[in-house]
Amino acid sequence: MRSRIDVMRGYAEKTDCRRRMLLGYFGETRPAPCGTCDNCDAGTSRDDAGDVPEGVPAAQEAVRDPEFGDGVVMSVEPHRMTVLFTEHGYRTFALDAVRALDLVEPVEA
User: What's the average pLDDT block by block, 10 residues per block, for the chain (109 residues)?
Assistant: First the structure.
């Protein structure tokens, strides 16, 4: 239950394009902001949301975590990323921890 609350909190606090976040939640990608949601209207959406920091898996990438198993990256934000794990639901990771501890590794296709 807590992971669902974290996802909703992330949606409410997001300053990037909300449509892009919703599409990502359902497995779709949208590289550019929609231009019509409240954040796009406010001018806070970024064109570069697809840019992922080095050492961090991108949205929609299959990953594996030693504790939670296999999952898919749902979103990557400046300081955190959210992953949907098959067995454990949504989990949010600090990007610094992902990089420093190799918490979430991409799964080779």
Answer: 72 82 73 87 72 74 91 82 86 86 81
